[in-house]
Specification:
Blueprint (H helix, E strand, L loop, with lengths): L2 H6 L14 H6 L2 H10 L25
């Protein structure tokens, strides 16, 4: 079983845990800003929040000249 399932799903199916879909969790993870940045730069880059990398704040670096 993966670490995500162990942490967020209490060792079960994380997608069955209703808390993973709450607005509070989205605010805690700053999901709206992250997804907005992804959408604005959709054609320029594909970056996931993995190992501490995040696309939040990268918009100015990714602008076409």
């Amino acid at each position: 079983m993966c670490e995500w399932c162990m942490k967020h799903g209490a060792g079960g199916k994380w997608y069955m845990n209703a808390r993973n879909y709450t607005n509070e969790l989205a605010k805690e993870l700053d999901a709206e800003e992250y997804l907005s940045e992804q959408w604005r730069n959709f054609e320029q880059v594909f970056i996931r929040k993995i190992s501490g990398f995040s696309s939040i704040g990268l918009g100015y670096k990714l602008q076409m000249p």
